[in-house]
What we know:
Elements: E1 2-5, H1 10-21, E2 26-30, E3 44-47, H2 53-60, E4 65-68, H3 76-89, E5 94-98, H4 110-123, E6 128-134, E7 153-156, H5 168-180, E8 187-191, H6 199-210, E9 215-218, H7 221-231, H8 235-249, H9 259-264, H10 271-277, H11 279-282
The chain binds NADP nicotinamide-adenine-dinucleotide phosphate.
Amino acid sequence: MIFVAGASGTIGQLLCNVLNSLNEEFRAFGRSQPESYFDIGNNQWRSGNFDNYESLVQAMDGCDSVFLTCSPGNQMAEHEINVIKVAQELGVKKLVKVSVPNASRIGRTKLQRLHFLSEEFLQQSGLNWSILRPNAFMQNLHGDTQGFNINRKFCLPLEGAEYAFIDALDIAHVAASLITSEGPQNKIFNLTGPDLLTYREVAEIITHISGNKYSFNNITDDEYIEIMKKTGVDTWFIDEILEWFREFRDLNVGNVTSDVKNVLGRAPNNIKHYITKNLSIFS
Ligand SMILES: NC(=O)c1ccc[n+]([C@@H]2O[C@H](COP(=O)([O-])OP(=O)(O)OC[C@H]3O[C@@H](n4cnc5c(N)ncnc54)[C@H](OP(=O)(O)O)[C@@H]3O)[C@@H](O)[C@H]2O)c1
């Protein structure tokens, strides 16, 4: 039985759909069950909280492998370490955790430093582990912080920055493959899409596919802060995103890798595929 921690999130929902289609038995865990595009079939939903140890013990009991993802935030490492501790206590055999590119004790971004703490804890836990470090999700392109404004413009301080955008569905497929097979374990996977693209290039591709004019407008960090403050996004998150922008502008996040193909035996989805499949969002 697979325990999906963070099942209501972007990757978690997609993973439940994938596991369901593979007829794998799983238990979906999160604070509350979402209704959108989410099919857990005959599998069980369990509500609880990563900061409530007992709720985790009750929900995870009887599971032999765990998928773990948690939303970004100050408590993230603490929450993830709780899940790993419960997995240890219950004799779980395998845990697949989502992390970030270049997670490190001395990482520039807070998330790199927090993820490093839970990565390190996991690696020393005695569990069989896999760590997924995905590049930026294609799903960000229609999100609140790195998506288009109402005039179909990306207004971001990202001139020249290159991203190896990955479809979160591919992350879910990689997680499903690692968690259900005897395949390589105790390994870090740097997951990327097949192309390095700037936001300007992405806007051109969306324009071409959708027939609507999309564009990229380079702005300063201060202008981005002003725009984000008006949307009500948490200040902590704005600062964090700006650090990530610097990381990408300095080209620190790296090149396209073959890790998705190595696990799945096929190339990752490219941006054209993603936009075509989600055309209603970009029309
Ligand atoms: N977005 C990117 O481009 C990107 C790139 C690389 C890595 N990442 C990493 O990917 C991870 C995020 O994955 P995602 O987008 O799938 O996450 P997400 O959509 O934010 O979902 C996070 C999941 O964790 C659950 N959760 C959060 N706090 C919880 C708590 N206290 N107790 C129980 N459940 C809790 C959420 O439940 P609720 O529904 O109740 O909130 C949700 O199910 C982060 O670690 C991030 O650093 C993101």
